[in-house]
Amino acid sequence: MVSNLIVLLNAIVNQYFSNTRCLICVTDGNLLYDTKRTPILNLNSMDGNLNISDVLFRSFGCHDFIVQVRNPASTFEVLEKEILYNKERYNRRKYVFLQSSTETEVLLEIFNTSQINFVSDVIAITIDTRQSDNEIFTVWTHPYKGGRERNVPHIIEKWFSKNNSFMLGINLFPDKLRNQAGKTLRVATFQYEPYTIVEQLSSHEYKYMGSEMMTMHSFAMFYNMTVVPVVSNVEQWGEIYSNWTGNGVMGNLVEDRADIGAAALYTWENIYYYLDLSKPTVRTGITCLVPAPKPSNRWLTPLKAFAGATWFAVILVYVTGTITGYLSELVTSLTSRSLKGFATVFTTQKVITTVIKPFINQNVTRTEMLVGTLGKYVMGMVFVATTILVASYSSGLATIMTVPRYDNPVDTVEDFVRSGWKWGATQNAWITSIEKAQEKNYRKLVQRFRALSEEELRTLSLTGEFAFSLERLPHDNFAVGSYIKRDVIQNFHLMRQDFYWEQCVIMARKSSILLPLLDDFVLRVFEAGLISFWQNEAATSYMDHYIQKAVKYFLHHGSERGVVKLKMIHVQGAFGVLFVGNAMACVAFLVEIVAHRWRTKTVIK
Predict the structure, then answer these.
(1) Cα angle value 172/174/176 (rounded, 5°)
(2) Residue 9: CA atoms inside 13 Å, Cβ hemisphere, count?
(3) Which residue blocks in 422-514 are alpha helix, DSSP H?
(4) Using DSSP, how many helices (H) and how many strands (E) does the chain show?
(5) Using CA atoms, how far apart are residues 312 and 300, in angstroms rounded to an integer?
(6) How far is CA 445 from CA 266, 405, 440, 491, 551, in A?
(7) Alpha-carbon gap, residue 602 to 605, rounded angstroms
(8) Does pLDDT of 120 surpass 80?
(9) What residues does 125 pair with on adjacent strands?
(10) Strand 22-27 and strand 62-68: pairing?
């Protein structure tokens, strides 16, 4: 004969668990429940001592529980602890607790546990009257709302075995999350523009701004919750340790000091074991402000009017002209049948001097011209080529002298690795996404990163030998550390390429029942464009406009910009050429004097 409790349980399962993949039935061995509609996983537990990890958490999809044990409160705590420590998620779990041989008060102790604060769909069924012809069962639950009576159990329904019916016929698992009646939502965060801004106006009054802070605040308002900020400006993002403790935003979440949290938290693989991650709120690119490229060496300015290939062409034209001129002189001498004295040093010097003069804008006299018709053609071609080359060189030289030129800027990951610079910020969170990367460049990036205090970073910003991480956000906004001030921003250059990119998420307690609602809300506000609006609003109201504009302006950095007046530094290369030429002339003159005196003394002897 089927007991009345089984009949009641069948009615509940058929109505509320028809779409469940499977049920977990935990008993002391007194109840062997089975149903043809829903698979059942029966677990036998004596005195609440469960060892179910190897059986339960194998991706069976069993997320709902039926429990009838002598120690329901301790069993509930063990189940919640196992759920917390395992990878499988139970965000939509339901519990049905059945009275065993214990008193009603023992069963209702489940509503006094700390775990009840993290579960909304819990009912407890007690037996009020035991009669042969009619048993009356009472269904209890907790309000899961704000106020002093948030977890006080109350009766929501009665079931009578005489006619197998409920007294009221109401929903035993109402949606308690849609209106939480002012229930506290503890939000872990810190001041990080333009994501999260918490400004305390009085002891219990706050002003919220920022893309993620306004998302969490609006989420709380939509579901009638009261936001209580848990701010960790010192530890900031923080970290989580293997013993399920931590500090900062993530530490507050893993130790249940907060319900949800955000402040540019990324989709970190190692954190997923400890916390739940929402749908993405915004895409961010992690890049660097690097020391600005230094001006090119001005002494080499005359050489930079042409590229290397062009200089090679100029030299080739000169060598070709010299050889051709020499051959033309030879041909002319053969034609006139007068080779006497042709292959002299004087003739060679004449050809070299005659061909080079047009290259340096010097006149070629009649006596210096190559003789013969062939010589005239050769010099004509030299004049045409040098006219074009000299004009091109003059315009190119004027350009590079008035528009400043710089050494190759650091714009890519490869450039940064080659530069040898170190980079840093206030937390190691900046390298969490790439610390396990196997690529050579990324391993070097991780090795060169330094997590320093804001005071140390401020000091390094004055040296011009250190790079600083920042986030490249949509709509030309940048999350720049407060240690980058107006007096140093002109000394930096924004890299074109990101080190890597990430998706920002809101984190919650593992297997949080709020996550499905939070995911849906994030997608809705993102689709409406509200996240972008809140980000721009925070950037406009709280971030330094000069720094923001300067970062964008210095994407193509130079300490001098645009056309400038010529200064001594611009023409020092030309004077350098003049100085070198005069020095060589003086040396040649001295050599000639010495050689002349030596020859004179030899002749006298």
Answers:
(1) 135
(2) 28
(3) 440-448, 454-461
(4) 16, 23
(5) 17
(6) 18, 28, 9, 22, 22
(7) 5
(8) yes
(9) 98, 139
(10) parallel
CA-CA-CA-CA torsion sign (570, 573, 576, 581): negative
H-helix segments, 255-408: 308-335, 345-356, 372-402
Say if strands 282-291 and 466-473 run parallel, antiparallel, or are unpaired: antiparallel
Reading the block at residue 487, the tokens are 């007096």
List, in sequence order, every residue forming a beta bridge with 430; answer none if it has no partner. none
Q: Torsion angle, CA of 412/417/420/424, rounded to 10 degrees?
A: 80
**Tokens in use for 287?**
């890049």
Pairwise CA distance, residues 348 & 355, whole Å: 11
How far is residue 434's CA from residue 443's CA, in Å, rounded to a whole number? 8
pTM: 0.78
Cβ neighbours of 177 (radius 10 Å) = 18
The number of beta carbons lying within 10 Å of the beta carbon of residue 212 is 29
DSSP-derived secondary structure for 69-93: -S-HHHHHHHHHHHHHHSSS--TT-
Torsion of the alpha carbons at 431, 434, 439 and 441, rounded to the nearest 10: -30
The predicted model gives 520-529 an average pLDDT of 96
Q: What are the tokens at 129?
A: 């009257």
pLDDT in tens, 459-518: 999 998 999 999 999 888 899 988 999 999 988 989 999 999 999 999 999 999 999 999
- The single-letter DSSP state of residue 193 is T
Q: Are 124 and 97 in contact (CB under 8 A)?
A: yes
Reduce the secondary structure of 210-248 to three states and give it as a string.
Answer: CHHHHHHHHHHHHCCEEEEEEECCCCCCCEECCCCCEEH
Tokens of 150: 């948030």
Contact between 481 and 425 (Cβ < 8 Å): yes
Cβ contacts of residue 114 below 8 Å, gap of 6+? none
First and final CA of the chain: distance in angstroms?
147
- Spatial separation of the C-alpha atoms in residues 89 and 273, rounded to whole Å: 10
CA 386 to each of CA 94, 324, 326, 474, 574: distance values in angstroms, whole numbers, following the listed order: 90, 15, 18, 52, 20
Residue 275: closest CA among 238, 223, 240, 306: 240
> Are 136 and 161 a contacting pair, CB within 8 Å?
yes
Close Cβ partners of 228 (under 8 Å, ≥ 6 residues apart): 184, 185, 186, 187
State the Cα–Cα distance between residues 383 and 387, nearest whole angstrom: 6
Express each pLDDT in 371-405 by its tens digit: 777 777 778 888 888 888 888 888 877 777 666 66
Dist. CA 439–CA 218, nearest whole Å: 41
**CA 459 – CA 450 distance, rounded (Å):** 14
